[in-house]
Amino acid sequence: MPPVGRRTPRAGPDADSLDALADVVMACTDRAREATAPRLSHLQLQALTAIDRHGELNLGSLSELLFTVMSSTSRLCDRLEATGLIERHPREENRREIVLSVSADGRRLLDRLREHRRVALASALADGAGLIGVSVRPALRTATDGHRRPA
């Protein structure tokens, strides 16, 4: 374990830039969450986003994605359902299985959150200094260069 106060070594010269980019994205997401859904916890937002990304999920799959135990995930979904952000219903192919999906209200909230985040990210990129005082352009270039699809 490295001594307290010392940074652990990073893999590659662009690691600091990528960390800075991750910090900016997280800060923009936090600001968007505060602006659109201040009562939604980070874990609730993560659950709502996961359900939206996958279309429908059962409780076990969501638990795995969130790295939480099933009972905690169930209570989390109870709260999201009570606020009208998700719905539970039987899966069409197997009526005994209950699946979670994002409600119309949940989708509107996610759309607003994503729009706020896009505006914040665009502002950070336009500033060139981002929200934490470092340039995010090299980090963005590094991140996207490594994930481009072959032509």
Automatic annotation (TrEMBL):
**SMART domains tied to this protein:** HTH_MARR
HTH marR-type domain span: 14-151
GO BP: response to stress
The Gene Ontology terms for molecular function here are:
DNA-binding transcription factor activity
Give the matching InterPro entries.
Answer: HTH_MarR-typ, MarR/SlyA-like, WH-like_DNA-bd_sf, WH_DNA-bd_sf
**Official protein name in the record:** HTH marR-type domain-containing protein
